[in-house]
Design goal:
This protein is of the alpha/beta class. The chain has two domains: 186 residues, Nucleotidyltransferase, domain 5 (2-Layer Sandwich); 173 residues, ATPase, nucleotide binding domain (Nucleotidyltransferase, domain 5, 2-Layer Sandwich), CATH 3.30.420. Strands 3-2-1-4-5 form a five-stranded mixed β-sheet, sandwiched between helices. A five-stranded mixed β-sheet has the order 8-7-6-9-10, with helices on both faces. Bound molecules: 5'-O-[(R)-(carboxyoxy)(hydroxy)phosphoryl]adenosine and zinc ion.
């Protein structure tokens, strides 16, 4: 397994600089949430969210059963400047009182990514502030530090509608990917199963609610994904096909059928996530054998809200000597506080970006692993990775 060879970015800034208290505005628009937040990172590593706003777009995308990029981009473009003004007003700060402006610069839906990044560039240029182009995945990876000064390293399971990854987080800019999805993301598996069964969008909460009513959750045998593959990668496309086949085989599906199939799909997704997370925990344990136990497993992304997934992860953690850390849901799902925090951490390390920093649809967090698995494109190790 490849170990990130990048030099520690901390070497680029003085100790005094790293301990400086900084206040950063963060903007996020990479998927279907438009968000702005102001975070103050104190010298002792504790973070204070001074103001935060998130506007979702579920109603706009619900008729399509998934996020429509053009609709998402327009929504973000209409809201970003107002959101930035609102959080500044709430924090009672003017732009010139900030230390930097951070925005997600990728990966994500490119039209949407541009909305936050361009707004951030305009504010940074106008106020003469540094710009920080944040990798959205690094935002998720650092999100537990919004609520507790968690010490590096930790293992991260990121499970959202756009991403499914297992990452070793050793520091800011120092992350190694152990596994990722080779097709759909875990949230997509919930969303697509829900769509097949005529449930609403987003599908995850709908599947979870209906699954609670299942009389016979074991009635539909669904496949174990990548059963023979010993990596930490994920695959959900086969499950979606199996759910469709089971649903289509029902002549006139009843609410009971739907509840049983939803429970089966949820159990299959949870089992797959926990099995792969267990494998990653074994790798992490070996690599950090001298660290005190329990070791930290952080779960982030919308799917972290799912009780079956959490219960399964708790059991896997108990088995492998880990403790499960789930940031509050508002920091598990897409938000700008995590982008502001990543920006603040980067600023203190001297890692700022030029005003021509590009918006990137694809941006693997772990450039080293990406270089070793260069098939970053469609299909295997594609955009969802
Ligand atoms: O992190 P998130 O809010 O947005 C991104 O995709 O970036 O994640 C949204 C995903 C959707 O696919 C949604 O169906 C799923 O998280 N989700 C859930 C639950 N709540 C949200 N999946 C399973 N169970 C839930 N309770
Ligand atoms: Zn996300």
């Amino acid at each position: 397994m490849a170990i990130d060879q990048a030099p520690a970015p901390a070497q680029q800034a003085s100790a005094q600089e790293i301990a400086r208290t900084v206040t950063v505005l963060g903007l996020e628009s990479s998927c279907d949430d438009s968000a702005a937040a102001i975070v103050r990172l104190h010298g002792d590593g504790s973070a204070q969210v001074l103001a935060e706003r998130v506007i979702g777009q579920n109603e706009a995308h619900a008729p399509f059963g998934g996020v429509v990029p053009e609709i998402a981009a327009r929504g973000h473009a209409e809201r970003m400047d107002t959101l930035a003004a609102e959080v500044l007003a709430e924090a009672e700060l003017s732009v010139s009182e900030l230390d930097a402006v951070a925005a997600t610069a990728g990966p994500g839906l490119i039209g949407g990514v541009m909305a936050a990044l361009m707004t951030a560039k305009g504010l940074a240029l106008g106020a003469g502030l540094p710009l920080i182009a944040v990798n959205h995945l690094e935002g998720h990876a650092l999100s537990p530090r919004l609520t507790e000064p968690l010490a590096f390293p930790w293992l991260l399971l990121l499970v959202s509608g756009g991403h499914t990854q297992l990452l070793v987080v050793e520091g800011v800019g120092r992350m190694t990917r152990l596994g990722s999805t080779i097709d759909d993301a875990a949230g997509e598996a919930f969303d697509k199963s829900a769509k097949i069964m005529g449930l609403g969008f987003p599908g995850g909460p709908a599947v979870e609610a209906i699954a609670r009513e299942a009389a016979d959750p074991g009635r539909f045998p669904l496949p174990r994904m990548l059963a023979k593959d010993k990596s930490c990668d994920f695959s959900f496309a086969g499950l979606k096909t199996a759910v469709k086949r089971s649903w289509d085989a029902l002549e006139a599906p009843t609410p009971e059928d739907r509840a049983d199939l939803a429970a089966a799909a949820q159990a299959a997704i949870a089992r797959h996530l926990c099995e792969r997370a267990g494998r990653a925990m074994a790798i992490f344990s070996e690599r950090f054998a001298d660290l005190d136990r329990p070791l930290p497993l952080v779960v982030a992304g919308g799917v972290a809200a799912n009780a079956a997934v959490r219960t399964g992860l708790e059991a896997a953690c108990a088995e492998h000597g880990f403790r499960l850390i789930a940031p509050p849901m508002k920091y598990c799902t897409d938000n700008a506080a995590m982008i502001a925090l990543a920006g603040a951490e980067r600023l203190r390390l001297g890692l700022t970006d030029p005003l021509d920093a590009p918006a990137r649809a694809r941006w693997p967090l772990d450039e080293h692993s990406a270089a070793n698995a260069p098939a970053t494109g469609a299909g295997r190790k594609g955009p969802k990775a």
